[in-house]
Amino acid sequence: MSEHTFDSRSESNLKTLLPVAQVKAREWLRRCLDAGINLKIICGTRTWEEQEALYEQGRSKPGKVVTNARAGYSYHNFGIAWDFVVFSSDFTVALWNSPDMARAGRIAEAMGLEWGGSWKGFVDTPHVQMNTGLTLAQMRERHRKGIPIL
Ligand SMILES: [Zn+2]
Asked: pTM value?
């Protein structure tokens, strides 16, 4: 298997994913770049502590609410989700509302990944995740017992 190398920000986030998810994320990123979409992976795995801190933002701490997920309730806590953003052609300006966000999402869906932009209710356009066939409750249970989810 050939190992692609991407920009340093994407690489550092890719490295936080579980190996199986990392392979998928790399393939997806390659496909997007090949399709002329300038994007980077800007978030990978969050520890449970980081998730709790994020949850408190806009609640017990200043800032605006950015997540409804407590620790153990986000796919980011299990190494199988990542966030991305499209950039201008020189990679200096993040373009959160670019139509290329949806193009990248559709490429993910074509690979059998789940794209947050297709969610009903809380739409999470920058979010991609890999389904495991397990529910979040089952994943939390495995985490508690120290059993790998993949
Ligand atoms: Zn996300």
From this structure: 0.92
